[in-house]
């Protein structure tokens, strides 16, 4: 069974959002998503300073099974990217909620997070018991 962290927020596209402050969030893909993708062999992340709207494509991942888009879960400006993933994309598989984080966004404030799913809602979406 995949891991769902109660302190995170989630999207229907299987991204997670960690609130670092009122105006900064960290983004990655869920354990469920990395499990479905299989071994991730390449990742393309957004450039620092790029402005993204919620649901905008922010990059892509290639696994042994498929190529998948990464979507921005909220609107904001990319303030950091996890550049270590370029040389070690397998970190996403090993630690999707830790070393496998993808990028950080500077957001307008907590209201920017409205519409994201709670852990319980995400579990229901992926049909966990």
From TrEMBL:
Description of how the protein assembles with itself and partners: The glycine cleavage system is composed of four proteins: P, T, L and H.
Name the UniProt record assigns to this protein: Glycine cleavage system H protein
Cofactor, how bound (note): Binds 1 lipoyl cofactor covalently.
Entry keyword annotation includes NADP: no
PANTHER family associated with the record: GLYCINE CLEAVAGE SYSTEM H PROTEIN, GLYCINE CLEAVAGE SYSTEM H PROTEIN-RELATED
Keyword terms: Lipoyl
UniProt xrefs under HAMAP family: GcvH
Domain Lipoyl-binding: 24-106
Family recorded in the similarity comment: Belongs to the GcvH family.
GO annotation terms (biological process): glycine decarboxylation via glycine cleavage system; protein lipoylation
Assigned GO CC terms: cytosol; glycine cleavage complex
Classification of source organism: Bacteria, Bacillati, Bacillota, Bacilli, Bacillales
Keyword NAD: no
Gene3D superfamilies: 2.40.50.100
Pfam families with a match to the protein in the record: GCV_H (PF01597)
Necessary cofactors: (R)-lipoate
Stored InterPro entries: 2-oxoA_DH_lipoyl-BS, Biotin_lipoyl, GCV_H, GCV_H/Fam206, GCV_H_sub, Single_hybrid_motif
Its job: The glycine cleavage system catalyzes the degradation of glycine. The H protein shuttles the methylamine group of glycine from the P protein to the T protein. Is also involved in protein lipoylation via its role as an octanoyl/lipoyl carrier protein intermediate.
Transmembrane stretches, start-end: none
UniProt superkingdom: Bacteria
Chain positions with N6-lipoyllysine modification: 65
């Amino acid at each position: 069974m995949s891991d769902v962290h109660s302190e995170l927020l989630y999207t229907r596209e299987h991204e997670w959002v960690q609130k670092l402050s009122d105006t900064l969030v960290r983004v990655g893909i869920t354990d469920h998503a990395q499990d479905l993708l299989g071994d991730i062999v390449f990742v393309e992340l957004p450039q620092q300073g790029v402005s993204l709207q919620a649901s905008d494509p922010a990059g892509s991942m290639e696994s042994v099974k498929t190529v998948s888009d990464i979507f921005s879960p909220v609107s904001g400006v990319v303030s950091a990217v996890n550049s270590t993933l370029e040389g070690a994309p397998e970190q996403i598989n090993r630690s999707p909620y830790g070393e496998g984080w993808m990028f950080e966004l500077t957001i307008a404030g907590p209201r920017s997070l409205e519409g994201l799913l709670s852990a319980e809602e995400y579990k229901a979406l992926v049909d966990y018991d």
